[in-house]
Amino acid sequence: MEESLYNLAFERSVLSSIIFDPAQFDEFDAVLTPEDFYLSAHQEIYRSMMSLA
Q1: The domain containing residue 41 runs over which residues?
Q2: Which of 20, 15, 18 is nearest to 42 (CA)?
Q3: Residue 20 resides in a domain
Q4: Is 34 among the domain residues?
Q5: Can you give the pLDDT at residue 5?
Q6: pLDDT in the model for residue 14
Q7: What are phi and psi of 21, to 5 degrees?
Q8: Distance CA 13, CA 3 (A)
Q9: Is 1 or 21 the better-scoring residue by pLDDT?
Q10: What does residue 52 show for φ and ψ, rounded to 5 degrees?
Q11: What is the mean pLDDT of residues 8-28?
Q12: Looking at the domain assignment, is residue 3 inside a domain?
């Protein structure tokens, strides 16, 4: 059985850091995809950030 590891506080931290400093998005975009987020709302927020960038 494969277990999923996730940390909602870390996901919130990543998203909020991009909101407060949009210049960081390029660094995160190089390593993250929306599917890397566990919470579907966080996936949608990140997709929106991608389209705005």
Answers
A1: 9-52
A2: 15
A3: yes
A4: yes
A5: 80
A6: 97
A7: -145, 80
A8: 23
A9: 21
A10: -75, -30
A11: 96
A12: no
